[in-house]
């Protein structure tokens, strides 16, 4: 019977394991805070909102810029700007709909 017992108190082992679990959880929490994973949901929504805003502004501004350049070279004063801005709005909305239809991770 002496061969089966390890000579260590099982109560002491439980206390050591609990202490190890607490230190491990604390270290994982500290690492999550350090890497920014702790606020994942809030940060992800913020980034998605910024992406939608950038798509909207970029599409309209890009279309307006291209339309203005076409007007300058072709001499079709407001029509190139208006048509290309309209196309920019259409592309922006299409991208925003595509972004909103993506599944969350």
UniProtKB/TrEMBL annotation:
Listed Pfam families: ATPase_gene1
Family affiliation: Belongs to the bacterial AtpI family.
Protein name from the UniProt record: ATP synthase protein I
UniProt keyword annotations, A-Z: Hydrogen ion transport, Ion transport, Membrane, Transmembrane, Transmembrane helix, Transport
Transmembrane segments: 52-70, 76-97
Its biological purpose: A possible function for this protein is to guide the assembly of the membrane sector of the ATPase enzyme complex.
Domain of life the protein comes from: Bacteria
Stored InterPro entries: Atp1_alphaprobac, ATPase_put
